[in-house]
């Protein structure tokens, strides 16, 4: 995402300039130029990171970042670098690596053809899409009759409505929130979404690049959609079994008028099952009760918020990774203020590889403990990149999967026992099954959703589907890959993407589903 922001800042700064088709008379040796450019980049990243981090503002890093005046100055310098890169004649360069680096550096420069409007519009549209989930503008169900003290104040999707999905077993209530949130946001989500798509299409056209390639430009793997498709095939047999089990349980619980025992699962109930994977009272409760899960939160109750981070860091050290320097703990790590504590309270991560700045949540609970392992994966990964040239910094690589893999290992009974967190607890067979089944629900049911989100964007940008049909296409994919349908007939103009779609669109939130 930051790469995109830089891209668009660059655009804004240089529209008035013209590219000098400079005859390179006293041009620096290309290899030297690439090395210098890398160092210059690095310094600029540092400045931005430090300034954002040292802001006393309690907003999230990205919001602070968009307000910094110096960002524009720094962007101008980045533009300078890319302009200089464009001056090299690629034909005459033999060294493959240098050539690739120059091409990379050039591409950044090419973005400025878009003009200021796109820069300001795309940034604002992305921010607006995210805000749709935090604006408190949804009337509570039945005027607040189900709320504590019959409170009728309006609710936000996040965290209020999400919490209701974790607790409610009332299908009508969930359906009401599912529909109201989409209805409330219909106009703004479409405007913001369409504007972003249009901006990307225009940018790609000017750059003479396919819009698909432009959209996925940070990914190193060009075949990843194909590979995801293969994964979908691989998990299909297991997924179908799990789906059938859940559908049957939902049918027993809510009856045939709500859940067709042979059809797709209505989305509001599918969401409920996912949200309740670790809660009591879900459809799995009769088989695996919440009460018989290990007392996970008591395992970590003795921790201070900060010492959870140290414990997670020990895991990475035990893998043989270089210890994080004291500089990270002193200068790049901050505690969130109290206001962040409501709701899920995720860490705020500002990724300026090779630096990662982090505001962590003060809640001490097992889930946070695991999420911390994921965050540190990102920090380590970014740090390991510090010895690479900076044009590798923005590419998405393995930081998310590495974080997830570490989370899986760190949560095993064996590990918890080894580090002394679950000393007196006996992980019996039924308890292990309980844990595994809940993990299965939580993980397996989310995979098709990730895939559908990626495929929707892919098909739209590749022109496989017209923008007017995007919602229909979304539901076709949801039915095909997830076995899920909307809870009611949808209006022609609806855009029914969930909140997580916009998050996925903007950036990968690694531990979102933990
Ligand atoms: C929902 O939960 C309440 C209390 O836990 C219970 O009395 C009720 O029967 C449940 N309703 C359904 C549809 O399962
Ligand atoms: C894009 O669309 C073309 C045809 O319209 C198709 O052949 C190609 O496979 C698509 N590419 C991707 C990555 O979806």
Automatic annotation (TrEMBL):
Disulfide bonds join 345-361. GO terms for cellular component: extracellular space; plasma membrane. Its cofactor is Zn(2+). Chloride binds at residue 219. SUPFAM superfamilies: Metalloproteases ('zincins'), catalytic domain. Keywords: Carboxypeptidase, Disulfide bond, Glycoprotein, Hydrolase, Metal-binding, Metalloprotease, Protease, Signal, Zinc. GO terms for biological process: proteolysis. Transmembrane segments: none annotated. Residues 1-16 form the signal peptide. One of its GO terms (molecular function) is metallopeptidase activity. InterPro entries: Peptidase_M2 (IPR001548). It is an enzyme of class 3 (hydrolase). Binds 1 zinc ion per subunit. Pfam families: Peptidase_M2 (PF01401). Its EC number is 3.4.-.-. Belongs to the peptidase M2 family. This is Angiotensin-converting enzyme. It comes from Ceratitis capitata.
């Amino acid at each position: 995402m930051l790469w995109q922001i830089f891209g668009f800042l660059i655009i804004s700064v240089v529209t008035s300039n013209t590219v000098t088709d400079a005859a390179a008379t006293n041009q620096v040796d290309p290899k030297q130029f690439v090395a210098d450019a890398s160092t210059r980049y690095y310094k600029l990243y540092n400045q931005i990171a430090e300034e954002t981090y040292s802001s006393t503002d309690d907003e999230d890093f990205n919001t602070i970042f968009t307000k910094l005046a110096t960002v524009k100055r720094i962007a101008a310098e980045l533009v300078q670098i890319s302009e200089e890169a464009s001056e090299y004649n690629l034909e005459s360069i033999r060294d493959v690596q240098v050539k690739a680096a120059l091409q990379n550096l050039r591409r950044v420069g090419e973005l400025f053809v878009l003009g200021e409007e796109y820069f300001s519009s795309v940034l604002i549209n992305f921010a607006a899409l995210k805000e749709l989930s935090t604006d408190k503008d949804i009337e509570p169900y039945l005027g607040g009759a189900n709320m504590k003290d019959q409170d009728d104040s309006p609710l936000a999707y996040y965290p209020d409505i999400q919490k209701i999905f974790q607790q409610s077993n009332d299908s009508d209530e969930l359906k009401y929130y599912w529909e109201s949130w989409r209805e409330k946001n219909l106009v703004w989500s479409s405007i913001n979404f369409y504007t972003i798509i249009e901006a990307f299409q225009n940018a790609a056209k000017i750059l003479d690049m396919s819009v698909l390639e432009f959209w996925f430009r940070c990914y190193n793997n060009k075949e990843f959609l194909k590979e995801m498709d293969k994964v979908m095939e691989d998990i299909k047999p297991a997924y179908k079994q799990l789906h059938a089990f859940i559908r049957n349980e939902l049918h027993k619980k809510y009856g045939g008028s709500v859940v067709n025992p042979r059809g797709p699962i209505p989305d509001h109930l599918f969401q409920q099952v996912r949200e309740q994977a670790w809660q009591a009272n879900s459809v799995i409760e009769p088989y695996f009760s919440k009460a018989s899960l290990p007392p996970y939160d008591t395992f970590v109750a003795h921790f201070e918020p900060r010492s959870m981070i140290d414990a997670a860091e020990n895991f990475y050290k035990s893998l043989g990774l270089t210890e994080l320097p004291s500089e990270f703990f002193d200068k790049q790590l901050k505690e969130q203020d109290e206001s962040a504590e409501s709701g899920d309270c995720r860490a705020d991560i500002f990724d300026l590889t090779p630096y990662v700045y982090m505001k962590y949540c003060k809640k001490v609970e097992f889930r946070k403990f695991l999420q911390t392992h994921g965050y540190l994966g990102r920090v380590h990964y970014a740090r390991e990149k510090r010895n690479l040239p900076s044009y590798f910094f923005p590419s998405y690589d393995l930081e998310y999967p590495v974080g997830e893999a570490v989370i899986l290992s760190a949560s095993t009974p064996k590990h918890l026992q080894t580090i002394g967190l679950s000393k007196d607890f006996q992980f019996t067979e039924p308890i292990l099954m309980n844990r595994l089944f809940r993990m299965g629900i939580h993980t397996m049911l989310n995979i098709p959703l990730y895939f559908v989100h990626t495929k929707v964007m892919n098909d739209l940008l590749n022109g496989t589907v017209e923008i007017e049909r995007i919602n229909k296409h979304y539901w076709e994919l949801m039915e095909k890959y997830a076995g899920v349908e909307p809870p009611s007939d949808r209006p022609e103009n609806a855009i029914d993407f969930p909140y997580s779609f916009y998050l996925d669109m903007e950036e990968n939130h690694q531990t979102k589903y933990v």
